[in-house]
Amino acid sequence: MSVTGRMKAKVTRSRRELVARGPTAYFIRQCHRHDPEVNQCLKDAANHLAMNFRRGIPELGYPEVEPIVIDEISIALGSGPDGYRATFMDIEAYGVSNLTVVGVRSDLNSYQFQLSFYIPKISARAHYKSSGVLLVMQASGGGDYWGEYEGVKAKIYFRASPQMYKGRKYLVTEEIKMDFGVKDINMGIENLHNGNTVIRSNTLPTGLFPSAGGVLKLGNYKEMKPDIKKNIIRIMKRFLDNLFTKIPYDMWMLDS
């Protein structure tokens, strides 16, 4: 099962206890709450989890983790019924699991955590379609989107609250925020269909410009970023909810 924007698997109480009742799982590295280097320990623990996550963790419901799937991302230019709209559907991203956690900040008293990530490269594929008006002309079409994102840096902040269940302390995710940046981007659209001269024009305000071989290049991603962030936050919340439901807080954070 891949990690998807839907993540349909439901976590039941019995499945929660699979991890809670046994010995410390192989993918968990324990930290001590009063360790002066607790943030370093949390960074090491997060990287240990990520290393195992790349291989798949069936105990958490992830026998395989890639591709990461997002149902849909949209961008809009202009307002009103004739505004230009572009939609990217059935997005599959590869390389996300190669992340490295480069920094952790925490406030254990208020259950707040901030993690900084680095991902060398993400490759994405999707179906693309557009509609609306650009440059006073109808601009509709579609094709196959591809994207190569290199040097991805991200920060994710989350706040949780404790909850007791059968004498064990679990965390419940209350809030998530994130931001990211990309050092270098190459992306475009192949196999254009139903396209017209506007779609193929090199004067589009989004920075689109055509290249040889029938490939439509996209010059930047800033119009896509808000929707990407929204989808990443949704996926991350479902992942954390799944993780925290199955692994007691007092299993990975020892009160000593």
TrEMBL record:
One Pfam assignment: JHBP
Family matches, as Gene3D superfamilies: Haemolymph juvenile hormone binding protein
Keywords, in A-Z order: Biological rhythms, Signal
Domain of life (superkingdom): Eukaryota
InterPro entries documented for this protein: Haemolymph_juvenile_hormone-bd (IPR010562), To_sf (IPR038606)
Keyword Signal tagged: yes
A Gene Ontology term for the protein's cellular component: extracellular space
Biological process annotations from GO: circadian rhythm
PANTHER family associated with the record: PROTEIN TAKEOUT-LIKE PROTEIN
Family: Belongs to the TO family.
Protein name from the UniProt record: Uncharacterized protein
